């Protein structure tokens, strides 16, 4: 089994300061970046496949050189056997379509065709949820979205999954698809390890990947557009049909907030505070 997980770096909104250029494009080099939280659900799904079925898990991203740290984060916090970064200036400022074309080419450039490609539900910045399905469309593979759980039948070459119907938590269906296949993990996805052998293997693999992440450069492959034989006219900004009409800057939270200090023995001072908070405690 060879599984690949697509990931993306997103602004670390905890920092409260995101930088845009004059054309409305996010300046990722000037913005603190972390691994997209929804992609970690996808990576956990791929890790579950590794634990249960064996094989190899690759983590792939497209972005600036700083995304090496995003890939390292995924390897350290969840799991990865190796890392792939698609990166050069020609790929910059891409919309989801140009990104999908680039990532699909990266997947085709691997030595071994993946059995499964996992993608997150959507990113924390654009929130379109387009890149995974568009990459799948480029490869003409089947796709299962909103996946809550999955099982692999290697002999039959199929994946069976439980998924939300139209994203509705109240309606769940079971579907089956042939591999290779795209899986979009829902944020509700929860890995399960019922066998003791699986739980022990999970523990051992987690220790291995944390050690590997300390020297992640040895497991990293970087490809530019020439390595992938991509025409610059069809990738990056030039290959992006989307027009950014405007953005709303994210305000930075104040570093200091007003606070009233009350000592525990100041009963009279506590009474108005309790009067104010009691309705909230009651759910009003």
Quick overview:
Keywords: Coiled coil. By secondary structure, the protein is an alpha/beta fold. It has a single domain, classed as 3-Layer(aba) Sandwich (Rossmann fold), CATH 3.40.50.
Plain-language structure description:
The structure is a single chain. The chain is α/β, with parallel strands linked by helices and 284 residues long. It has one domain (2-234): Rossmann fold (3-Layer(aba) Sandwich). It has helices at 37-53, 67-77, 96-108, 131-139, 196-213, 267-281; strands at residues 2-7, 9-11, 33-35, 56-62, 82-86, 116-119, 143-153, 158-165, 168-178, 181-185, 220-223. The strands form two sheets. Strands 9-8-7-10-6-1-4-5-11 form a nine-stranded mixed sheet, sandwiched between helices. A two-stranded antiparallel sheet has the order 2-3. Strand 8 and strand 9 (168-178) form a beta hairpin. Helix 1 (37-53) packs across helix 5 (196-213). The longest helix has 18 residues, at 196-213. The chain starts with a strand and ends with a helix. The model has no long low-confidence stretch (mean pLDDT 90).
């Amino acid at each position: 089994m060879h599984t690949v997980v697509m990931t993306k770096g997103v602004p670390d909104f905890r920092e409260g300061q995101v930088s845009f250029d004059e054309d409305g494009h996010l300046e990722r080099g000037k913005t603190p970046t972390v691994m997209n939280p929804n992609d970690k659900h996808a990576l956990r799904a791929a890790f579950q496949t590794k634990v249960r079925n064996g094989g190899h898990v690759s983590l792939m991203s497209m972005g600036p050189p700083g995304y090496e740290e995003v890939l390292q984060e995924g390897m350290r916090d969840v799991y990865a056997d190796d890392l792939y970064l698609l990166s050069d200036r020609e790929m910059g400022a891409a919309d989801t379509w140009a990104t999908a074309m680039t990532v699909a080419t990266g997947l085709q450039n691997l030595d071994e065709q993946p059995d499964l490609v996992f993608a997150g539900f959507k990113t924390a910045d654009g929130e379109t949820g387009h890149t995974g399905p568009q990459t799948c469309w480029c490869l003409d593979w089947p796709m299962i979205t909103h996946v809550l759980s999955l099982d692999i039948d290697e002999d039959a070459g199929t994946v069976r999954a439980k998924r939300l119907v139209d994203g509705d938590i109240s309606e769940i269906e079971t579907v089956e698809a042939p591999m290779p296949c795209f899986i979009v993990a829902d944020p509700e996805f929860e890995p399960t390890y019922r066998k003791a052998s699986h739980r022990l293997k999970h523990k051992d693999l987690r220790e291995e990947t944390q050690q590997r992440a300390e020297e992640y450069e040895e497991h990293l492959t970087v490809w530019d557009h020439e390595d992938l034989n991509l025409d610059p006219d069809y990738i990056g900004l030039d290959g992006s049909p989307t027009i950014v009409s405007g953005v709303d800057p994210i305000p930075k939270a104040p570093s200091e907030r007003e606070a009233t200090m009350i000592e525990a023995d100041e009963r009279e001072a506590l009474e108005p505070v309790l009067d104010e908070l009691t309705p909230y405690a009651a759910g009003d």
